[in-house]
Amino acid sequence: MTDTAPTVLFICQHNAGRSQLGAALLQHLAGDRFVATSAGLSPADEVNPAVAATVAELGMDITDRVPRAVTSDDLDAADVVVLMKPGLALPSTPSGEVLEWSFPNPESWDADAVRPLREAVAAKIRETLLTR
Fold first, then answer.
1. CB distance 51 to 114 below 8 Å
2. What residues contact residue 103 under an 8 Å CB cut-off, 6+ apart?
3. Is 56 exposed, middle or buried (0-12, 13-18, 19+ CB in 10 A)?
4. What is the chain's pLDDT, residue by residue, as a tens digit (132 residues)?
5. What order of strands is seen across the sheet that includes strand 7-12?
6. Is 53 within 8 Å of 17 (Cβ atoms)?
């Protein structure tokens, strides 16, 4: 057993909504048990404001996070890769475990619409990652 916390990489299309939400929630729920990161295939310019608002309700500010593209190095370094949408075309094969979750894209949603998504992602993290 290693003393190093496993790295979990959340990936979605734009790294603005679902993957940012997943990484923030894992950080919030697990503390230092995991290293939470996120990336996307075609990054947006900024984190989705509605997603950031619902994360702020939990006491976390993610407005300064910058969406970025997933790299082969990211996929090599991650112990667990969580695809927030099944079937994403990655730049290389991940070396760690791959989980495919299916969550809708909150791109045009307001905070009221994002809250149920936030709770669904948190529940999935609790049942899938925090039980390890």
1. yes
2. 18, 84, 85, 117, 120, 121
3. middle
4. 456 899 999 999 999 999 999 999 999 999 999 999 999 999 999 999 999 999 999 999 999 999 999 999 999 999 999 999 999 999 999 999 999 999 999 999 999 999 999 999 999 999 999 998
5. 35-40, 7-12, 80-83, 97-100
6. no
| 123: Cα separation from own chain's centroid | 13
Residue with tokens 């949603």: 109
**For 75-114, b where at least 16 C-beta lie within 10 A, e where not — what string?**
bebbbbbbbbbeeeebeeebebebeebebebbeebebeeb
Residue 9: which of 105, 90, 118, 64 has the closest Cα? Answer: 90
